[in-house]
Amino acid sequence: MAKITQLTTTLLDFLSTQDKSWSLCTLSFMASFLVFFAIYIGLNRYRQPWTKAYVIAFSLFFAYKANGILMLMLPITAISSWYLTRFMMRLKRGKIRRSGLAIVILAELTPLLYYKYTDFTLEILHEILHSNFSPEKMLLPVGISFFTFQAISYTVDVYKGRYPKTAELTDYAFYLTFFPLLIAGPITRAEVLLPQVGRPREDIDSGLVYKGLWLIICGMVKKALIADYIAQYNNIVFDAPAVQSGFGDLMGVLGFSVQIYCDFSGYSDLAIGVAALMGYELKDNFNFPYQSLNLTEFWHRWHISLSTWFRDYLYIPLGGNRRGALRTYLNSFLAMIVAGLWHGASWMFVAWGVLHGIGLVVHKLCKNNGLDRIPDNTAVKAISWCLTFGYVTFAWIFFRSPDMATATTLMTNILQTTSLSDAYTFLMEYPLWIIVVLISLELHSIRGNDYSWLQDRFVHAPWLVKLGIFALVLQLAINFSQHSIQPFIYTQF
């Protein structure tokens, strides 16, 4: 009896307590998901509304574990966004409905603007007015940037007729609260997920399920075995760049380029994989971005859901490339500044956005002035890749550094004190770190067709082989995470 009471107390404590480390990669989530998934499979034999309600309930529980009481922003946003969008579509076409669209978007943006940018705005006013006012740091609901952008995309798509206005509240709540997407996306359009919500799930495609398992394995390898491990040294560099040698700082910058890709694409793999296990097919969010030969191509491959969101809901409405070259350059530049601010209310993210905006403008300018006439041979591709990867890696300095002083110290140290004589010392001190980074970069060079072949081989392998691979990766992830677990980078956005 005492054991049952203790077990009940432990369970109630778990259900009622926020967990700041909660994510798709934690053991507590994995255990919860196994219980959830077992019941989910059983419910698929019955009426669809029961399954839908069950997933929404688990998604709200997921949000509570990540956010605590701030999770209320999610159902409030879902209900208000759905009702306001329906009200907007009842307005008379023309200026009145356009005004309604602006009001709905502003209402959807208000929580994001309040929680994410109030402190930043007050700090700017403090600097301008030289006041003694010092606001307390405001807590940011985890994932608010992602579900806000999903809500806006739904409203705009309904307004423009890209998606029908007939979605029921329960379907829309499922779409906006779907737990694999909550913490760090990918930002999913209504046209991708909503049609699948009402589809019967009795006969889930086994190929999709096994693809989901493959993606979960890839996500755990990227996050637990690579990103979390190399983050340990990267944190040392960005916390105290002056302490390291110039070569050591350079390696830290290179390491962060690998870390942020493996961390974020790893989460995307986990999210898409978990959704696939449940029978929902989502679009890829990364397509080997470090293979890019120019910055425009990089943004077609990196965080695809965000880059296409800014293209469709900001860049094109601003005029896109339809109003001349100068306006095209300006629109690209403005879109990247907003993208920088989307990542965080900080001048460092603005600087990162400005760098990418300048890079995109320079590439478009060169392309419009004869860049396409340069021979497309191996040497040109190698130079293009070095320039692109080098520029992206340089920009990551501002993305990762907590302030401009840190970024300046880091760059100064690299430029003034980097010596190849330090390479041997670094190699002797961090041999495994170097190996992991180099292997990660080499694996990133794999061709898309080869990756698809590997995935297909896994999907069609005997189930014992699949189970063995999954168990091995899970055990390695557990062993590594005990010593080096790091929060997902994009949970802060």
TrEMBL record:
GO biological process: alginic acid biosynthetic process
Origin: domain of life: Bacteria
Gene Ontology CC, one term: plasma membrane
One GO MF term attached to the UniProt entry: acyltransferase activity
Its membrane topology: Multi-pass membrane protein
Matches recorded under InterPro entries: Ac/AlaTfrase_AlgI/DltB, AlgI, MB_O-acyltransferase, MBOAT_fam
Pfam families, per the entry: MBOAT (PF03062)
Compartments, record wording: Cell membrane
Protein name, as recorded: MBOAT family protein
Keywords for the protein's UniProt record, in alphabetical order: Acyltransferase, Cell membrane, Membrane, Transferase, Transmembrane, Transmembrane helix
TM stretches of this protein: 21-41, 53-79, 100-118, 138-157, 333-362, 382-399, 420-441, 461-480
UniProt family annotation: Belongs to the membrane-bound acyltransferase family.
Major location category of this protein: membrane
Keyword Nucleotide-binding part of the UniProt annotation: no
